[in-house]
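Write out the 3D structure for:
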Amino acid sequence: MTPRGTDVEQVELANTAFYECLERGDFDELSALWLDDEISCVHPGWPVLSGRGEVLRSYALIMAHTDYIQFFLTDVKVSVMGDTALVTCTENILSGGPADEESGELGPLVGQLVVATNAFRRTPDGWRLWAHHGSPVLADADGDDDD
């Protein structure tokens, strides 16, 4: 196995860990995946968030207001150049609203497609997130027009 292949595998693992932390609502582990210095994040429909405080605060809010979320990643592509890596993927998201207070049942499930770019940097502690950018998929990928 080449060192490049090893880097790709390590970046894939770091990327998977990012989404698994979100699914579990594990804020501490999610925080540990991000770099300590200049980071940025764009959630679909949000402005650019810069700096560790703003970025992590956004994830704390998302986790606090999301009772259920699951990511099915498709079209995952990893590119590594030196100490920088780029992951592009499609996030097939299934999420549920707040549970009904009386029955305790989860609210209706909603599906969403988001294309994402995750930038990672190599550190002595492994690959860490440098930036995340998610954009909603609004158009049919086949280019079919219903008009």
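DSSP finds three helices and six strands in the chain.
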